[in-house]
Amino acid sequence: MLVYFISGLGADHRVFKNLELPGIEMKFLPWLIPEKDESLHDYASRMIRGIDTSEPVRIVGVSFGGIMAQTIASMITCRQIVLISSVRSPEAYHKFVKWVSKVRLDKVFPMAGLQHFPRKGMDYYFGLETREDSDLLRDMIGHADKYLLRWSVEQVLQWTPPKLSVRVSHIHGTEDRIFPVQYVKDATLIPGGGHFMVLNKSREVEEALELLIRD
Predict the structure, then answer these.
(1) From CA 34, how far away is CA 46, in angstroms rounded?
(2) 109 CB contacts (<8 Å, ≥6 apart)?
(3) Cβ-based neighbour number of residue 92 at 10 Å
(4) Which pLDDT value is given to residue 215?
(5) pLDDT digit string (tens) for 83-114?
(6) Integer distance in angstroms from the first to the last C-alpha of the chain?
(7) Which H or E element spans position 84?
(8) How far apart, in whole angstroms, are the C-alpha atoms of residue 107 and residue 115?
(9) pLDDT average, residue stretch 166-173
(10) How many CB atoms lie within 10 A of CB 83?
(11) pLDDT for 142-154, tens place per residue?
């Protein structure tokens, strides 16, 4: 079974490196450099070129990758979407994110400064437990394109969720500090899981995926 995977904002395929899913062919959809003033819809149409639509399409999206997966599912026929550490609606955003979106604080401050965010703060918000995981995230974000980071933040803040007919499943950590669990509904919960749990709680995420991904 072929399943497409989309990482989160600033991350790459390495976020999935600990996942072992027998019987599932994992194909990573890489982030592209956005074109000037490109909409989320137009960006998704370019990402779709990496998908074989002649076969049933299943997509697993982490964080912002989940938002992208839902956008793609509004444009092509998908068999299933699985969100990990993501949201189905801006209603699930933390109240601070909602405030930033309302006042458009991202237009005032360099949100791509995520690349220079203090290690302790990043470890806390992403739920990182080891130096190895912390170094990996910092390396991924450090190598991410700055324009892609800014564009991605803008898309999150402006996002209007599409109406979908596809089955959408959701896996979420109880200790997620980016998208707090109290704002999330109808999800398979991973006890103690933080925003980076696809990497550091991979066994629990694997078990949930194996139960959710099916014909």
Answers:
(1) 10
(2) none
(3) 21
(4) 56
(5) 999 999 887 776 656 545 444 444 444 444 55
(6) 9
(7) strand 80-84
(8) 17
(9) 95
(10) 25
(11) 888 888 988 988 8
The predicted structure's pLDDT at residue 19: 95
**Tokens matching residue 96:** 């601070």
Contacts of 89 (CB under 8 A, 6+ apart): 161
Integer Cα distance of 213 and 215 in angstroms: 7
CB-CB contact of 155 with 164 (8 Å):
no
155 and 67 Cβ atoms separated by less than 8 Å: yes
**Could you give the CA distance from residue 115 to residue 150 in angstroms, rounded to a whole number?**
11
pLDDT of residue 188: 96
The reported pTM is 0.89
d(CA 7, CA 27) in angstroms, rounded, equals 11
Question: Could you tell me the sign of the dihedral formed by the alpha carbons of 73, 112, 91, 41, in that order?
Answer: negative
